[in-house]
Amino acid sequence: MLYRVVPRPLMPSAIIGEVDIPYNLWSNPQFLLFTPDGTRILHGSTNGTIRVWDLSLRELIKIPTEHVSQAGDWARLLNDQILVSGTSKGFYNFWDVTSGMPIKFCTASRGPEGLDFRHPASAPNDLTAQRWEMILRDANRWQDDPRVHKTHNRVACIFEGSIFVDEKSSNTRIASLNVGPKPQEDFMLSPGGKSISFRLPGSNDSCLWNIDAQTVYRLNESLCNQRFYRREWSSDGHYIAIDGYSDFTLWHTHTGALVSVLNFSRVFQSQGRVCFSPDGRCFAATDGCTIKLWDMKTALLHGPYRLNHPLSLHSGVVDISH
User: Fold this and answer.
1) Cα–Cα distance measured from residue 317 to residue 297, given in angstroms and rounded to the nearest whole number
2) Of residues 198 and 271, which shows the higher confidence score?
């Protein structure tokens, strides 16, 4: 009897884009984020350069700023006409990007009496003047850090060996978790306030506390290279990505399951940046030399998938010894 071996069809790659960034030894990524509609990627560098890419990673805009501080901590693209960079201290810079050569036409700073705008005595042209009037009329569009996707009114804090979660508006305690040794201070509350990612002292294991379900999972326990630098929530809080040395593990926050591994192909530096698109369809990462873009649907289809069992939790005390 003859047998015919039918090759298994290859799954499509989850990577849908990759581009090299002109590298400068003194340049690291300052920020990486998507525009709210998910059609553009903004990348800021510590050498002061801001770049805008489309989802095919074709460079659309490049702004070599006058000073590294002007790149800011984040950036926004307004109607494909204005790029604004901002800092956590309330300083803003504005460029008209409608022409091939971006034109800086305005700055602003946040003071005790509101925003203080400064712009050239005579705008470069009437179009730029119109741009300035547009941002002046609708300042709420660009003041806040776009990386913050907070949709809740919860706050979390650490005291001794416990994590506490309170409802800020009513000052009501919602939940507490005793983990024994004091957790590290770099805990992260999810955008919807339903989960907390935390680490224990002297450990790079990441733990996930599902606050409402009162379940705790240890993530990365059986994975090698447990050292990680970056964690990032998806905007809906359903997934968390964890840097695992040269790849990113994706975890489902409701079940604690490992749902995919995204390979970056080389060591991901501590200065790297990662982000999900607002609609959760894409995930992007950069180490300052390369930007890679993954399709989440394909990544979740690829896996690997691994179930995870919650740690023992009794009366708000979790057993992390196993």
Assistant:
1) 36
2) 198
